[in-house]
Design a protein that fits this description.
about 110 residues, binds copper (II) ion
Length: about 110
């Protein structure tokens, strides 16, 4: 019985980790939250399907952006959020235009749903 509980707990934790970022096999869809926290995007890399909305939430005191060729949130003030929708398959590299030099960058892998 104890063994079973441990297996369930590990499975639950693995499920949460997968849910957080998705994977090539199990991309996320709907609305996916990406935190702007500590001058980093979190998660830094996500897998989503075409049509997914990315909701960037700024938990820092500094202003951030999430900027790519495919989308641009514009300025996101402290405590604010901004959403963009990805509508094409491919890998999107994005940056915060203010903190790119501090390696505030992220990647969105957009795959067919
Ligand atoms: Cu920034």
């Amino acid at each position: 019985m104890r063994f079973l509980l441990v297996v369930l707990a590990v499975g639950f934790l693995a499920g949460c980790a997968g849910q957080e970022e998705g994977s090539p096999e199990e991309p996320r869809s709907g609305t996916v939250d990406i935190m702007m926290r500590g001058f980093e995007f979190e998660p830094r890399e996500v897998w989503v399907t075409v049509g997914t909305t990315l909701r960037f939430q700024n938990e820092d005191s500094a202003v951030h952006t999430a900027t790519a060729d495919a989308f641009d949130t514009g300025d996101v003030a402290s405590g604010d959020q901004a959403s963009v929708t990805v509508d094409g398959v491919g890998d999107i590299q994005y940056v915060c235009i203010y903190h790119e030099a501090q390696d505030m960058t992220g990647t969105v892998h957009v795959v067919q749903g």
